[in-house]
Amino acid sequence: MRLVRTWCLRFAGLFRKEQGDRELTEELESHLQMHIEDNLRSGMNPPEARRQALIKLGGIEQAKENYRDRRGIPWFETLFQDIRFGLRMLRKNPWFTAVAVLTLALGIGATTIGFSVIYAVLINPYPYAGADRIVHLHVFDKTSFLYDLSLSGEQFREFQQANALDGAIAMDRWHMSRTGIDLPESVTAGKLSPNAFHFFGVPALLGREFSPEDAQDPSDPQKVVVLSYGYWKAHYGSQSNILGQSLHLDHENYEIIGVTPKRFAWWDCDVYLPLKLSQDPKRVAMIFARIKPGISYPVAEQELQGLVETLARQTPDNFPPDFKIHLLPLNDIAVGKFSGTLVALFLAVSLLLVIGCANVSILLLARGTVRNRELAIRFAMGASRGRIVRQLLVESTTLSLAGSLFGVFLAYHGLDFVSQHLPQGTFPREASFQLSIPVLFFSTALAVLTGILFGLWPALQSSDPQLSQIMQSSSLKLTGSTGSSRSHTVLIASQVALTVVLLTAAGASVKTLYSLVHTKLGYDPRNVVSMYVPLSDDGSHSMWQDRVNYYDQIRQKISSTPGVVSVAIATTFLPPVSTNNKSSVEIQGSTLQERQVITLHEISPEYFSALHIQLLQGSLWTESETLHAAHVAIIDGSMARRYWPDSNPVGQRIHLDALKPRVTWMLAAPGNDGWVQVVGVVADTPNNGLRDPVSPTVYVPYTLVVPDGFLLVIRTQGNPLSVVHAVREQIHTVDAGQVVNEVRTAEQLLDSEGWGRERFTASLFIAFGFLGLALAAAGLYSVVSYVVSQKAHEIGIRMALGARGSDIVRMVMKSSLATVAAGLCVGLLTSIALSKLLAHWTEDSVRDPMLLIAIALIVLSATSFASLLPAWRAMRVDPAIALRHE
Amino acid sequence: MSEKPDVWQGTLSVMVLKTLETLGPLHGYGIARRIEQTSGDLLSVNYGTLYPSLLKLEQEGYIASEWGVSDNNRKAKYYRLTRAGRKQLQRETRDWEQATTILARFLSPGEKSS
Question: pTM for this one?
Answer without folding.
Answer: 0.72
